[in-house]
Amino acid sequence: MVGDVPQTEIVALYAELHDVLDRIDAADASPASDTESIEVAVAHELAARRMSGLGHQRVLDVSDRGAHMRAGYRSLHDFMAGPLRIANPTMRRKHMEALVPMHSLHGEPLPPKCPETAAAVAEGAIGPEHVQKILEALNRIPAAIPAEHKEFAERTLAEGAREFTPRGVAELGARILAHLDPDGSVTDDADRARRRGLSVGEQDAQLMSTVRGSLDPLTRSMFDVVLDAWAAPGMNNPDDEQSPQGSKDDTDPEVLKDAAGRDHRSPAQRNHDAFKALLTAVLDGGLLGRSHRGLPPHLIIKITETQLREQAGIAETAGGACLPIRDVIDVAARAQMHLAVFADHTPEILYLGRASRFANRSQRFALFARDGSGCTCPDCTQPFTHLEAHHAHRDWADGGFTDINALAGACPPDNRRVGPKPGQYRTHIVTEGPDTGRPAWTLNTDAGQPSNPPRINRLHHVAESFTRHLHGDTSPPDKSPPHRVYHRQEERRRVPRLVSAGWSVREIDWDTDSNGRPHHHS
Q1: What is the DSSP code (8-state) at residue 351?
Q2: What SS3 class is residue 209?
Q3: Fewest CB atoms less than 10 Å from the CB: which of 344, 364, 402, 500?
Q4: Nearest 5°: phi and psi at 235?
Q5: Other CB atoms within 10 Å distance of the CB of residue 499
Q6: What is the pTM of this model?
Q7: What pLDDT does 423 receive?
Q8: Gyration radius of the chain's alpha carbons
């Protein structure tokens, strides 16, 4: 019972579950025999897989009631990414739709789309990795295949998942597809259009990214033409200063022959370097236009003055990627001749007052420097190149100023979510503590619901948090230490430098004058 309100059974059961988990965590496993240790390990994984299936039902309970909307979340996706901290809400929702009984528009109960897979998850026989491989295999089955054959495929995959690893399930799916459509004649343009896609994965510890995708036949054909011209042996080799650049058709055959003899790259490495050279040509050739959301459509990089001086560390791009310092120096060395450095000042004003509603380019550079490489709305991962300048202190329509200390970067969907209604956000600029000057977002709730605290998006400040940890500052990021003062020398260590190939490199100084507005030192 909580206060005078009796606790429902489901809440009491989960409280008991956590009590049991605490007892398991405190239990001494050393007296157990080898056989018992194995039994316990098996039982643990079985329970974890069962819990993954039960978790789908708990999320669906919230969705069916619309409880997430009354708590201020616009969508179930936001709720899953926020308080539930689900790493991939989109994939989790696809699992839910396949495994959990749903309701029709008339309220009638519907069985799971993948009943055999759902049963295996409920028993704890298979886990989320198996489910993902089953769904991927089913998604590749052409739409023209009869429904009973698709049911056979789902049943076969679920039975195989009880025995095979996720990789084995993927191989089983390939064999089923070959059986259902042996010569590919059933697949049509609609199937190819449904499956087309290209995605770039997150950067790993070595800052490398995995590219996955499915190209339709025409796109594949065009890609082959590009690789044939740009990925030929000897072409666009970053390890060879004399390697010809661009297409082999524009290169002297003797020069190309000599370069090919020095080329020890694998075909995959040549493809990578050709793709990189092609992107460089697009960026340098002006094919992207002159401006994108107020920024030059080029590589924009942010590093600290210390990193540039010591040539050590990792830089951030406006697109949200990380670059080793050696790549940054290489970009700066190859920049166009009008590259300039403005120390402690910028030639354009950062305070427009009511003279203009839209932020200028210098203000957008400054926002990138202050707020990081992405949207300032909590949990949003949109990169800075997708953002708009949001009047965070006071909306323009309500008399707000287009000043740098009143603006924040926000992606278009989040910018439109600012307002007084439940599920919308209120924003303000923090005026005290180590986050002074940064935008904070508060999610509105329904009347009678507990208020949400203001939040700052920390996703784009990982490097700063790591630096603070190295320097021994362990204070919580959302709780400012009392009476902490940042002196000019300490603050300057946090001031970023922007490096842009072909554009100005600017250092923004955030000192303030007697009126509280930043001014610049020459």
Answers
A1: B
A2: coil
A3: 344
A4: -90, 140
A5: 25
A6: 0.58
A7: 85
A8: 28
Helix (H) or strand (E) holding 18: helix 9-26
Residue that the structure tokens 């295996």 belong to: 120
Closest CA to 308 of 491, 473, 495: 495
Q: What is the pLDDT of residue 96?
A: 95
Both structure tokens of 40: 């316990």
Tell me which DSSP letter residue 397 carries. G
**Alpha-carbon distance 518 to 103, whole Å?**
57
What confidence tens digit (pLDDT) does each residue in 93-145 have?
999 999 999 887 777 888 999 999 999 999 999 999 999 999 999 998 988 89
**H-helix or E-strand containing 384?**
none
Mean of pLDDT values over 245-267: 89
H or E stretch covering 200:
strand 197-200
User: Would you give the DSSP letter of residue 199?
Assistant: E
Closest CA relative to residue 365, chosen from 507, 195, 166: 507
- Coil, strand or helix at 427: strand
DSSP H or E run through 36: helix 34-65
Distance CA 364, CA 348 (A): 11
What φ, ψ does residue 442 adopt, rounded to 5°? -120, 120
Query: How many Å apart are CA 314 and CA 304, to the nearest integer?
Result: 9
- Residue (of 53, 68, 169) closest to 115 by Cα position: 53
* Helix 147-161 and helix 115-123, axial crossing angle in degrees, nearest 10: 20
Nearest to 324 by CA among 211, 206, 241: 206
Cβ within 8 Å of residue 255, ≥6 positions away: 242, 244
Nearest to 82 by CA among 459, 464, 512: 459
Residue 153 pairs with which residues in a beta bridge?
Answer: none
Strands (E), 398-520: 407-410, 425-429, 439-443, 496-500, 503-507
The whole-number pLDDT of residue 337 equals 28
* Structure-token pair, residue 102: 């749903």
Which amino acid, residue 372? G
- For residue 86, which amino acid is it? I
Q: How far is CA 395 from each of CA 153, 160, 415, rounded to the nearest angstrom? A: 55, 57, 11
CA dist., res. 295 & res. 360, Å (int): 9
Question: For the segment 169-210, what is each residue's pLDDT rounded down to a tens digit?
Answer: 999 998 898 888 887 777 777 888 888 999 888 888 888 999
The Cα 342–Cα 340 span in angstroms is 7
